[in-house]
Amino acid sequence: MKRINKKNQKNENIYKIKIVLLLFVSFLFSSCELDVQDTFDFKTGAVDEDPFENITAWEFIQSKNGVNEDGTLLFEHFQYMEAAIKKAGMIEEFNQTEDTQRTYLLLNNAAMTGGGDVIEIVTGSAATTITVLDEDGNPVLDENGDEVKNQLTPEEVFEKVDTPEKLEKLRTLLKYHITLDYVQQVPTLAVEGTFYVFQTLIPGDDGLIAYRRDADWDIKVNERGAPLPNSAFSGGWNENVRNHNYVFNNGIGHIINDPVRNQPY
Fold first, then answer.
1. What is the percentage of the chain residues whose pLDDT exceeds 90?
2. DSSP letter string over 219-251?
3. Domain count within the chain
4. What is the reported pTM?
5. Residue 236's pLDDT is what?
6. pLDDT-based confidence at 136, cuts 50/70/90?
7. Domain containing 222 — which CATH number?
8. β-sheet with 239-240: strand ranges across
9. Does residue 43 form part of some domain?
C-alpha cells in the first residue's frame, strides 16, 4: 500500500492557499481600475395628479358607459344614472362649476336595478325588459315556452317616470345624493368612528346625511347609530362607499351600489 508523505501534503496545501490569495488580491486591484458607471437617470411613471380633475361629475358619468361581451351594461358604470339625470332635468346640478365643494354619491348601474333599487323606488317596477307580443297582442314564446323579452335602454326605462309624482321622487332621490360639502376621509372625517352630518341639496332635516370613516379608511353613509332626525335604517337606506375619491373640477365623487336616504322615499 502506498504511503502518503504528510510533510509534502502540507506543503502542497500551503501552496494552493497562496495561489488563491494571489488571485483574490489581483482581482481587487483590477476591479479598482474599472471605469465608474454612469449615474442611472430614473424616470418615474407615477402620476401625481388626479385623472378627472379637469372634468365635471356629469362628464365623468357620461364617460363610464361600458358593456359586457353579451351587450349587458357593466354594473360599475353609469348609463342608468345618466338617463335618470336627463329625465329629471338635472344635468346642470352635476355639470355646474360655480360650487367646487360638493360631494357626488354616484349611483352605478347596480344601484339602479333590482328589487328596492332606484328604478323600482321611482317607477314602482324593477323591470328593465319588455315582453315581445305578436300581432294579436299575445306574448311570443321561445323554444322552451318562455316569454321572449327585449332589453329596454336606460332611456326607455326612465320613460316609465310618467307622472309628476314619479318625477318629483326621482328629483328628490338625485338631490339627496349631492352633499353640499367636500367629504373625503381626511381632513373632513378627521376622527375615525365619528359621525359627521352634512346637508344635501334637499333643505331641512329631510336632507341631512351622515358620513363615518372606519379604521380601514372606508366611508360609510347613514350607518346605524347616526345622529339623524329620521330613521335611515328600517328601510335599509344606508350604504358603504365602494370606490372613493374621484376628484372633479366641481367637487369630489364616491361610487355606491345602493341608494341612501335618512327616510323612505
1. 65
2. EEES-TT---SS-STTTT--EE-SEEEEEETTE
3. 1
4. 0.79
5. 64
6. confident
7. 2.30.180.10
8. 195-199, 208-213, 219-221, 239-240
9. no
